[in-house]
């Protein structure tokens, strides 16, 4: 191979500064890299750790670099302190309370399998958890209450035969 065909470096890698040859149009486009590793390093987006400042990958939604930094960052944060536990606000507590007060059966058909009973809001407002607004009913009765009035079969039965 003669000397005239050997390409001489005309630029350098943006990351490692290694001398490389690239076509002039590639140089004009912007960053030139010696290989895939340097290209990958140029695309890394790093943010500093909130505690020690060590760079960490930004794409992982991490705020700290390690468990020890996370513990330092979390020190002093309190979770759910001074909040009374009102079990009426929670569905399980509601169901247990209704089972104790009203018996272990459906309020409409008296089906007695407590595992499948559901809480129904009489006024259909999920935020209104007053005991007078709630009743325990089985899935069949609950479906009849909410969906039977909107059934497309009801319209079909009343309008198509004539």
Notes on the structure:
This protein has 162 residues and is α+β, with helices and mostly antiparallel strands. The chain folds into 3 domains: 8-43, no CATH class; 44-75, no CATH class; 87-150, His-Me finger endonuclease fold (3-Layer(aba) Sandwich), CATH 3.40.1800. It is 31% helix and 11% strand. The chain contains 6 helices and 6 strands; from the N terminus they run ββααββααββαα. It has a two-stranded antiparallel sheet with strand order 1-2. A two-stranded antiparallel ribbon has the order 3-4. Strands 5-6 form a two-stranded antiparallel ribbon. The longest helix is centred in the middle third of the chain and has 12 residues, at 91-102.
Which structural class do you get from the secondary structure elements? alpha+beta
Quick one: CATH class of the largest domain? Alpha Beta
Strands in their spatial order, largest beta sheet = 1-2
Distance, first to last CA = 96 Å
- Percent helix, as a range, is 25-40%
CATH architecture of the largest domain: 3-Layer(aba) Sandwich
Give the tally of β-strands. Answer: 6
Please provide the ordered H/E string of secondary-structure elements.
EEHHEEHHEEHH
Q: What is the makeup of the main sheet?
A: 2 strands, antiparallel
Number of helices: 6
As for the number of domains, it is 3
Mean pLDDT: 83
Low-confidence stretches: none
CATH topology description of the largest domain: His-Me finger endonuclease fold
Beta-strand percentage range: 5-15%
- Based on CA atoms alone, the radius of gyration comes out at 34 Å
């Amino acid at each position: 191979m003669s000397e005239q065909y050997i390409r001489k470096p005309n630029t350098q890698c943006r990351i490692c500064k290694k001398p490389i040859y690239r076509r002039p149009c590639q140089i004009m486009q912007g960053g030139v890299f010696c290989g895939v590793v340097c290209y990958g390093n140029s695309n890394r987006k790093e943010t500093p750790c909130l505690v020690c400042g060590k760079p960490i990958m930004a794409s992982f939604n991490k705020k700290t670099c390690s468990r020890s930094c996370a513990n330092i960052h979390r020190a002093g944060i309190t979770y759910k302190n001074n909040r009374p536990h009102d079990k009426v606000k929670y569905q399980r507590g509601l169901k247990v309370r209704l089972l104790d007060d009203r018996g272990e059966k459906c309020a409409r058909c008296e089906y007695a399998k407590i595992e499948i009973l559901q809480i129904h809001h009489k006024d259909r407002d999920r935020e209104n958890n007053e005991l007078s607004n709630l009743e325990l009913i089985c899935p069949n009765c609950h479906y009849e209450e909410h969906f039977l009035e909107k059934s497309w079969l009801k319209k079909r039965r009343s309008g198509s035969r004539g």
